[in-house]
Amino acid sequence: MRVPWRTTLLSYTFLAPALILLAVFTFYPLLYGSYLGFTEYNGARFAQGLDPRWVGTANFEKLLADPLFLTALKNSVKYLLVVPALQLAALAVAVLVNKQLPGMAIFRAGYYVPVVTSVSLAAVMWEWVFNREGTLNWLLRSLGLTSPEAQFGWLNSEAWAFWAVMLVTFWRGFGYYMVLYLAGLQTIPEELEEAAVLDGASAWQRFWKITVPLMRPTILLCTLLSTIAALRVLEEVLVLTNGGPLNSTYTALMYVYAKAFQGFDFDYGLASAAGLVVAAVALILSFVNFKLFNRPEEDQA
Amino acid sequence: MSLTAATPARAAGRTLAWRKPAAVVLRYALLILILVFALFPFVWTLAIALTDKTAGTSIYAFPQSLFPARVTIHNFVDVFRSFALGKALWNSVVITGLTVAGTLLISALAAYPLARFRFPGRGLIFGAILATLVLPSETTFIVNTLTLKKLGLLGTHWGVVIPTIAGAFGIFLMRQAFVSVPVALLEAARLDGASELTILTRIMLPLTKPSLAALGIFTTVTTWNAYFWPMLVLSGAPDKAPLAVAVLKLKGQFNYDPFNIAAGAIIMMLPVLIVFLAAQRLFLRGMEGAVK
User: Fold this and answer.
1) Would the CB atoms of B142 and A22 count as touching at under 8 Å?
2) Around Cβ A140, how many Cβ atoms within 10 Å?
């Protein structure tokens, strides 16, 4: 069937604003950014109007020789530890609020509030919690776990800052995944649960034998989203610790940002190369995730 | 507690193990503990913001600082006067307003032909738009900053807004909404001689108000809260920075006053909290819709 030219013209007129913006601010930067990774391009060259100079894999060799980048990459991979914690907690909490009991709407909404909180506010509020005099130390002291002399600022501690930042990521994320899991839980037929109860299955058994297997597609989606988000963590680090103390919270995307926009000469080429490495790791992890959680049914028997 | 008192009656009908009172009490205890974890920072910040700092209490005098002895709104006035927070608030309103208006306009325009017409290249365009959801975007912020500099938009509100308003999420959401409008309605309008633009504005948009509202709310919350991108674009123009950036600058001030910062934080949080609580059902259902 031939399409009237007027329909085509009209369609493209309506699409034009979106397509132009997407081309300029999404597709072009994806391609050009990838190209920049293989070039020498810095603030000075940009200011003089010089074009990027092709240098092949020189940037990548420089990255591998840079201990800061290796630290950053290691920290980003370590940051993935937040994923299982986040997913298990979110799924468990979703199971808890999924029952028809009074007040559940309040809990669901309350758990979601951190999700709609700006990272700036999280930084302001959590800094008071993590402070030497803050509530975390007060809580530990009250529980008799630490003494007043042994107190320190969590964000200033080389050993603990990393985990403190991760806790904020956890806090901001668990409500989001909880809602996604709730949606998945609602597709599980209630009869299945009730039959299992009649057969004498414990809550624990029902969780692992019914909920988890039936939720596999949702678990795959959430783990995938959260793995990529954890690998790309930047804002929390930027606002809470700025990578410190002693680079203990310096992540890979922090490196991309710092090389491109901090210091004396902005190195767009090197920063782009680092971005490509992060993107490659993200792709590999997504693939692994997919393989891990998307096993065909017969494997389960 | 009324919660526990109500349970035996509920349990009477069924004998499922988890309906037993002890299990219910345990469940609520756990839920309340998690709620404290989720909301404690807000409650404490609110308490600090309302504390009369002239009374000489430390915010760290815990747990007293959670219950201010003398309540005042002076900190809110103070933070407006001494930190020019009103300017930052206005910047947030401008950036968010422009972004929401732009996103709705661009998404609706682009979604209409994708939902309603067959034309050469449609599949390709739709595929390319959806692909942006998964394409690795680690380097885009570098190139976009360079582009804005060349266009002379770096350090302006438009520079913050324009790169963000054409997104796959909005286009996809509106396309799904448009697809569900009955074809018969459009054909009747066409027979009456209505132009496509009239059909879009007079029929499609009014019928898809819930989706427009959802997209508007999502965009409002994300833009209002955005930190990294506005910080980057406006790093050379601090007087144009929105609240999300300004609040952190307050924190970095040499003479930093936690009471004023708490007040600034509450001012920043309030609009989003109101939007979220008012549109909570829409919000949570919208999220759930993402996996169904």
Assistant:
1) no
2) 14
